[in-house]
Design a protein that fits this description.
Largest sheet: 8 strands, mixed
Shape: elongated
Distance between the termini: 76 Å
Number of domains: 3
Number of strands: 22
Mean pLDDT: 88
Low-confidence stretches: 1-23
Length: 405
Amino acid sequence: MKKILCFILVIFLVHLSFSQTATKGKPISGDCKKAIPLTISNRLFYGITDSLKGYGDVQEIKKGNHLLFEGEHNSAWYLLTFGRDGEMIFDITPADSTNDYDFLLYPYTDSTFCENFRKNQNKPLRSNLSNVKRSVRGITGLARAGELKPSIGKGIGNAYSNSLSVKKGEKYMLILDNVTPNGKGHTLEFNFIKDVEIKGRILNSDSIPVIADITISNVKGQTVLETKTNTNGEYSIKTSLNENQNYTVIATSDSTFVDVRTINTKELKKDQTIFPEIKMVLPKLKKGSKYKMESINFYGNISQLLPSSLPSVEALYRLMKKNKKMVILIEGHVNDQGSGDKGFIQALSDDRAKTVYNYLVKKGINKERMSTIGLANKFQLFPRPKTESEMQANRRVEIKVISID
């Protein structure tokens, strides 16, 4: 009996040790001299980090004794080194959206920085101390927009300060302070901005130019900008995009189905700024026709949409909003190679169709204009998929137009 109890105890301790290791976040430092070094040459993620607890070994920002922070509540210090020239941006995303993160960004020249900082001899290039209510998820950072300022003070204010031009070899000290007691960690995402031109031409299925609405959305489904084609179905947009990040070009019109394309600055060579012309053909809306929405795909074995699917679902919403009498059937599909669990794959295909249905209902589309059906694995695009992308293509929804007017 004792041997059995000892064996159980060992298994429990091993499991506990594994659990603690598995959930441990990226390291942080609450002290200037021990700042976590990060080298940034391209898009870079760091996190999710450990929770911020206090100010480390030394309280380097005392209350009422610094240029910006009221004090050092729960801090994290990062020493940034840039491996290229460019216009730098970043996001600080709290693991808990109720946490209120402030930040300071200083130029770093040499090892005297920490001592000079404690004496208030340094001046930040960028800072943001605005309240957590500044954004839905508590995100803050640097971005490019005409109205942004280098420093945002206390109270309700913009979530972002403006972007910063950096050069190869330059160093900066980034200091975060979570003012929320017992808060959680965060994720950092650094990137660079590229000025680009996007051109395209829109035709219908009879090769006739279409006057269409063009929307550029980011990976979160948020609209970056909008324009219209001219009478020749052409458009040209000059804008700035985050490097190495997918954007979705959505074309919609009153009498056609939508088309969606993905672009990424990775398609451009180093000195290129103009994307190859994007040609789209918008099929006419016809009663009884079935349309495959690009990129409405799901994680494996669950009904959760991939983040990259949000722009396409948003495009479907725009189509329904434009065509106020259109009625659709949302068909759900799964990737299954003969698991034998017919009940599970049927329920999964049902739930995937309902996921898109619920999204549209929340956006304001009348329930009476939509119905759903799960088609299990009956119509897989790749019956014997060989790659993850082929399996992902099977995990989809398709749209059937029941009536238009």
